[in-house]
What we know:
The protein is an alpha+beta fold. It has helices at residues 2-8, 17-28, 69-74, 77-87, 94-101, 105-117; strands spanning 35-39, 42-46, 121-124, 131-134. 41% of the residues lie in helices and 13% in strands.
Amino acid sequence: xxxxxxxxxxxxxxxxxxxxxxxxxxxxxxxxxxxxxxxxxxxxxxxxxxxxxxxxxxxxxxxxxxxxxxxxxxxxxxxxxxxxxxxxxxxxxxxxxxxxxxxxxxxxxxxxxxxxxxxxxxxxxxxxxxxxxxxxxx
Length: 138
């Protein structure tokens, strides 16, 4: 209860967030994801190294591309296609995504919400004229 209160007050991180940060950092630096297993009631974390291939290690700033590998790993195939269209300068609507990907409105709304949460897309307009474009990197 104390840990939950401290996390709510932003005085410490939420328990369990270290696993996601380790995974993201490894992917962003060109390494494989850590392997997390449980053995005898304990977590066992294996951090795979470059296996002698030091050329594959990179810093996130030099990773290039629209998104880091860690963010790309959490996107669905449909969200990646949507992001490709946005990156090409197209503006997307829910209706277009429904027709193009054969999904329902709630699914496209969830996809756009996730892309906006990750800072990859921004909403323009409201109501029936709502459309989305690639977020401007500042």
